[in-house]
């Protein structure tokens, strides 16, 4: 059994300067998550990176993870799982602690997405990896994800927490 | 490579090749295709009756930097 926290640089992720995207957004992601929550399909790997997802999708993902029994990897890199305030503050060189406090004050729902994923994944013994690079995750979010790793010992969480 | 399949293209893909005529599809990458909300909904609808797909990538390439 492994329990590994991997910090990776965005240099390791595929990136291009295309102006297009998939724009799945919260509504589209939620539709997919709702199906995965109740359908006995065989999907093991789902990558919705770079789709403008917010904390709403994080909550939906968490709900899905409570009942899904097939998903092994869930990649949600380069979204906005934590409200954009966090990213702005970070860009302005605010400390992790200050950023967390301000996000809580200005956008109380802003961290609910990461919390939802963490709670949902705790009840899921099949999921092995969650990728949440570049989502503006705050100090509290990091704590929740690390706590998740302690509960689910096969979990690998890849997060570049601050960018 | 950038494509522009968008939601209509996704609907056509699903209607013509999924799941009846291709029961062995296991990996589908729709990277950077401007699927939109409707494209994702169509995919969800198709996933509900699919029994073979194990890997689905809907990555958007307009990835924002910090």
What attributes does this structure have?
heterodimer, A: 163 residues, alpha/beta, Leucine-rich repeat, LRR (right-handed beta-alpha superhelix), 5-stranded parallel beta sheet, 43% helix, disordered N terminus, B: 66 residues, alpha+beta, two-stranded parallel ribbon, 2 helices, 2 strands, 36% helix
By CATH, the topology of chain A is Leucine-rich repeat, LRR (right-handed beta-alpha superhelix)
Ends apart, CA distance between termini of chain B = 24 Å
Helix content of chain A: 40-55%
CATH architecture of chain A: Alpha-Beta Horseshoe
Instruction: Provide the low-confidence segments of chain A as ranges.
Output: 1-20
Biggest sheet strand order of chain B reads 1-2
- The helix count of chain B comes to 2
In N-to-C order, the SSE pattern of chain B is HEHE
> On the 0-100 scale, what is the average pLDDT of chain B?
77
Structural class of chain A: alpha/beta
Q: Main beta sheet of chain B: strand number and arrangement?
A: 2 strands, parallel
* Poorly predicted tracts of residues of chain B: none
Beta-strand segment tally of chain A: 5
Largest interface: A-B, 43 and 36 residues
The fraction of residues in strands of chain B falls at 5-15%
Describe the structure.
Chain A has 163 residues and is an alpha/beta fold. Chain A has one domain: Leucine-rich repeat, LRR (right-handed beta-alpha superhelix) (Alpha-Beta Horseshoe), CATH 3.80.10. Helix content of chain A is 43%, strand content 9%. Chain A is built from 6 helices and 5 strands. Chain A has helices spanning 25-38, 55-67, 84-91, 96-106, 112-122, 139-151, and strands at 4-6, 45-47, 73-75, 129-131, 156-158. The model of chain A is unreliable at 1-20 (pLDDT under 50). By secondary structure, chain B is an alpha+beta fold. Chain B has one domain (6-57). Chain B is built from 2 helices and 2 strands; from the N terminus they run αβαβ. In chain B, helix 1 (6-17) packs parallel to helix 2 (36-47). The longest helix of chain B is centred in the N-terminal third of the chain and has 12 residues, at 6-17. Chain B is globular. At the A-B interface, helix 1, strand 2 and helix 3 of A face helix 2 and strand 2 of B. Strand 2 (45-47) of chain A pairs parallel with strand 2 (55-57) of chain B.
């Amino acid at each position: 059994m492994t329990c590994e926290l991997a910090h990776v640089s965005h240099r390791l992720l595929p990136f291009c300067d295309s102006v297009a995207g998939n724009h799945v957004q919260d509504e589209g992601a939620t539709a997919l998550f709702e199906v995965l929550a109740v359908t006995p399909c065989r999907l093991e790997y789902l990558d919705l990176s770079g789709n403008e997802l917010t904390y709403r999708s994080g909550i939906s993902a968490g709900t899905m993870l409570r009942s899904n029994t097939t998903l092994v990897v869930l990649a949600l890199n380069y979204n906005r799982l934590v409200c954009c305030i966090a990213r702005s503050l970070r860009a302005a060189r605010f400390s992790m602690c200050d950023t967390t406090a301000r996000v809580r004050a200005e956008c109380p729902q802003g961290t609910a997405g990461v919390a939802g994923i963490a709670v949902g994944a705790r009840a899921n013994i099949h999921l092995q990896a969650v990728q949440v690079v570049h989502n503006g995750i705050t100090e509290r979010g990091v704590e929740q994800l690390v706590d998740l790793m302690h509960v689910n010992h096969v979990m690998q969480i890849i997060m570049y927490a601050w960018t | 490579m950038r494509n522009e399949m968008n939601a209509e293209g996704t609907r056509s893909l699903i209607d013509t090749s999924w799941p009846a005529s291709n029961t062995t599809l296991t990996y589908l990458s729709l990277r950077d295709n401007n699927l939109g909300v409707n494209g994702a909904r169509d995919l969800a609808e198709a996933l509900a009756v699919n029994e073979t797909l194990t890997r689905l990538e809907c990555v958007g390439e307009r990835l924002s930097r910090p």
